[in-house]
Write a structure and sequence with these properties.
Elements (H helix, E strand, L loop, with lengths): L14 H8 L5 H4 L3 E5 L3 H13 L2 E5 L17 E2 L11 H11 L6 H21 L24 E2 L5 H19 L2 E4 L2 E9 L2 E9 L5 E5 L2 E4 L20 H8 L4 E2 L4 E7 L22 E5 L2 H8 L13 E2 L1 H5 L9 H16 L8 E4 L1 H14 L7 H27 L8 E10 L2 E2 L12 E3 L17 H21 L13 H19 L6 H15 L6 H21 L11 H25 L27 H4 L1 E6 L8 E6 L14
Helix pairs in contact: 3-6, 3-13, 4-5, 5-13, 11-12, 15-16, 15-17, 16-17
């Protein structure tokens, strides 16, 4: 099957406008006769469901949570990008496009990224109209801050709760349509399989997580918006329930899975404290605007801090190594996430880590507190403030900008970050890979769409901060509603899709067989036992740095673990009631297949780019020494994997990437 990205012809700045001018439309009367299923109700799924229903389609929306407002999008903290140039600092649609392609290490599809930059400004207007309480400056205008990998301030934010506020906006739009009867909302329902009729996606099989009932739902198109697969590592910043299962089910029915090895390790997370943890906690990248990252300059000081003999505040400026500022003077603490993460790992591997495990660096706000304090004192007319007053005023400013993040850190770590530097360390956060989609956001299954983090389309090998919320809402509010209409215009005479078709019966039978296996298997080990072991293999051998030996071992070990899982997993309880262990079993089964494909993809890609760092492919000399070394001659393509049974047998299809508007060059933030 040839991969056709369906990118429109013509200049990149005109592609999306010309495309919209020539697509087929569905008139309002016909929309009332067309059903669309949306799986997942985070920012991408919630905005898509609300918009499609507003247009007149009949929408069925499914969430495994007890409410759409509990989607993991709620955990996003720092902000959402948009090229509005409110700061007058030189931003533009092209600059956002350029920063995103460069930030992704030149492994994204240009046309999709330009469209994302183009519609970004509309998102802010939409959300302000919904009442999203973005931060404002002293004059009442929307405020912006900067994020990693850029030299402008384009990030709109609501303290450290941006995801929550944006999700409430989408949720309110959904609720309006639920009240009108245009959205049928199915909470506590998990998609178990997709149903294909004559090769087209025509419905899904779900399990009611409360009653255990298996249900059939039909539609003229299916939209997958179920987020990323970071929990394949077990420990990540994702919610415990976040999973790959919906994406993996459509993969096994014919949707190609693209670039699974492109996984983002976020540099600013609370470090692991022990093997008792079930997840990790993100500290927003926005903190790097004002926080300075450092480790002790001397090994003996790092050792003394680890042993509790010294405190970070005991070290003078000369005894600190602000290593990002030293290595990347142009961007400093605001280098992209992949660069900052590898730099932290390098310092800790060299022995300069600062917590008991040796895997942490400091994020210090002392300078910011002094700077803001002096500024506020001048504003108040005090030209010779005391140190105590400067400290008090500075902390008030920092609290106004980041207070909820500081409070969260204090509660988890039991240290006051206003007076003691935060400890941070990289952790699995976001997945740039996902289901392959064309320009229309359609997968290789006709009628099956994939949006938001669940698809691969916009970020390349590394996502810049504050772009996840941008992509999710761009897809849901402003892209999918156009592209899906072009496809559905052929279905205006199709009529209702019957759930009595043999394809539905066959899919339901397969789902029930797997469920019955789990509850009847007389194993001896819990689902979490296997998930934790998978996570350890992934982190140790497919984590921040990878090599051919480790990846080959990982594939063998994951396959063996998967075989052991099917023999020895124990799922207590029954299938006809609420059973969280049963739900987890199906999700971990999918992770055990994805993990092997992930390692295979990383093994095939014999280059370093963005979040994928092969130890064999690093710059060995010159100003870029130690940085990722791309191979544009052999690897400027999207890896799209076709399911063939065992992950080891997956077939690679390549979408060659073309760069007509941005020059391919070595990425530098120095």
């Amino acid at each position: 099957m040839a991969l056709d990205s369906k990118v429109p012809k013509g200049p990149i700045a005109d592609k999306w406008t010309n495309y919209k001018n020539h697509i087929d439309l569905v008139n309002p009367a016909n929309k009332r006769n067309i059903d669309v299923i949306v799986v997942g109700t985070g920012l991408a799924g919630g905005s898509a469901a609300a918009t499609l229903a507003e247009l007149g389609y009949n929408v069925k929306a499914f969430a495994y949570q007890d409410s759409p407002r509990r989607a993991h999008s709620i955990a996003a903290q720092g902000g959402i990008n948009a090229a509005k140039n409110y700061q007058g600092d030189g931003d533009s649609t092209y600059r956002l496009f350029y920063d995103t392609v460069k930030g992704g290490d030149y492994r994204a599809r240009e046309a999709n990224v330009y469209r994302l930059a183009e519609v970004s400004a509309n998102i802010i207007d939409q959300c302000v109209a919904q009442g999203v309480p973005f931060a404002r400056d002293y004059g009442g205008l929307l405020d912006n801050r900067s994020f990693g990998g850029v030299l402008v301030s384009r990030t709109f934010y609501a303290k450290g709760q941006t995801g929550q506020q944006l999700l409430l906006g989408a949720y309110s739009a959904m609720n309006r349509q639920i009240g009108r009867g245009k959205i049928q909302m199915y909470n506590r329902h998990e998609m178990m399989d997709v149903v294909l009729v004559d090769g087209k996606a025509r419905g899904i099989i779900t399990r009611n997580l409360v009653t255990g009932e298996i249900e059939r739902h039909s539609a003229h198109a299916v939209v997958i918006a179920t987020g990323g697969y970071g929990n394949v590592f077990f420990l990540s910043t994702n919610a415990m329930g976040s999973n790959v299962s919906a994406s993996w089910k459509i993969h096994k029915k014919g949707a190609y899975f693209a670039n699974p090895c492109y996984t983002q390790i976020h540099p600013t997370c609370i470090p692991v404290s022990g093997d008792h943890q079930s997840k990790l906690t993100l500290m927003s990248e926005s903190l790097r605007n004002d926080g300075r990252i450092w480790v002790p300059a001397k090994l003996e000081d790092a050792q003394a801090i680890r042993e509790g003999k010294k405190k970070p505040t005991d070290l003078s400026e000369e005894e600190r190594d602000y290593y990002l500022e030293r290595r990347y003077p142009a961007f400093g603490n605001l280098v992209p996430r992949d660069v900052a993460s590898r730099a932290a790992k390098e310092r800790c591997d060299a022995g300069f880590g600062v917590n008991a495990t040796g895997e942490a660096v400091y994020l210090d706000f002392a300078d910011a507190i002094k700077r803001y304090g002096r500024e506020q004192a001048l504003i108040h007319g005090d030209h010779n403030p005391s140190a105590e007053k400067v400290d008090k005023l500075g902390k008030e400013v920092v609290k106004a900008k980041y207070g909820n993040l500081f409070q969260m850190y204090d509660k988890i770590v039991d240290e006051d970050p206003y007076n003691t530097p935060m400890m941070i360390y990289p952790a699995v956060h976001y997945t740039m890979g996902g289901t392959w989609v064309d320009y229309n956001l359609m997968t290789t299954i006709p009628g099956c769409y994939c949006i938001g983090e669940a698809n691969f389309s916009d970020h390349g090998a590394n996502r810049l901060g504050a772009s996840a919320l941008m992509q999710g809402l761009a897809d849901g509010y402003f892209v999918l509603p156009y592209t899906i209409g072009d496809y559905l215009s052929k279905d205006i005479r199709t009529g209702k899709i019957s759930t009595d078709l043999p394809e539905f019966e066959e899919a339901e039978k397969s789902v029930k067989e797997q469920i019955n296996f789990f509850v009847n298997n007389n194993g001896s080990k819990s689902v979490d036992h296997f998930h934790k072991r998978l996570g350890k293999i992934m982190w140790d051998k497919v984590g921040m740095a990878r090599n051919a030996k480790g990846l080959t071992e990982a594939m063998t070990e994951i396959k063996a673990l998967r075989e052991e899982f099917w023999k020895d997993v124990k799922v207590p309880g029954s299938a006809d009631t609420y059973n969280e262990e049963l739900a987890k079993a199906g999700r971990v089964a999918d992770f055990l297949e994805l993990g092997e494909l992930f390692a295979k993809d990383a093994l095939v890609r014999e280059e370093s780019c963005g979040g994928h760092f092969r130890e064999e492919s690093a710059e060995t000399e010159g100003p870029q020494e130690g940085e990722a070394k791309r191979d544009d001659v052999n690897f400027a393509f999207v890896s799209a994997w076709e399911y063939k049974g065992e992950p080891a047998d997956a077939v690679l299809h390549k979408e060659q990437l073309e760069f007509n508007d941005i020059e391919l060059k070595t990425r530098s933030y120095k």
